[in-house]
Design a protein that fits this description.
Length: 129
């Protein structure tokens, strides 16, 4: 289930949408990137098919940029612009997973305390916090 699109990848490459010369290579890069993103999401215990349209739009941007970088790097492994694109896409993916799926200490603690209070426990042990 790709989040990006060939048109989106072509935008990153500044290739006209009507130019289909590289479509099969772009689709291969997109498939590779999509699998990598899916693995990251599964590592966060997230079912990729359950994401909201807002989240899939964010992933679309990441996937398009990353796939464009992969396409360029396959042609020239030392392409500095492609390396910067790849680094940017990976940082965006890291930020995405951190913002949407990681639980900080305070979020976890607060939820634990509220659950304990609702369940009628008179105290919360340090291990629960």
């Amino acid at each position: 289930m790709p989040w990006g699109s060939l048109a989106g990848i072509k935008e990153w490459l500044t290739v006209a949408a009507s130019n289909t010369q590289y479509d099969s290579e772009l689709a291969n890069a997109q498939t590779y990137v999509n699998r990598q993103i899916s693995l990251v999401l599964k590592g966060e215990a997230v079912d990729p098919s359950s994401l909201s349209s807002e989240l899939t739009a964010e992933l679309s941007d990441v996937e398009n940029q990353w796939a464009a970088a992969v396409f360029r790097l396959r042609r020239d492994p030392e392409d500095a612009k492609a390396i910067r694109m790849l680094e940017s896409a990976l940082k965006d993916l890291d930020r995405f997973t951190h913002n949407h799926f990681h639980r900080g200490f305070f979020k976890t603690s607060s939820k634990t305390v509220k659950t304990a209070l609702r369940s009628g426990k008179s105290s919360v042990s340090g291990a629960e916090l």
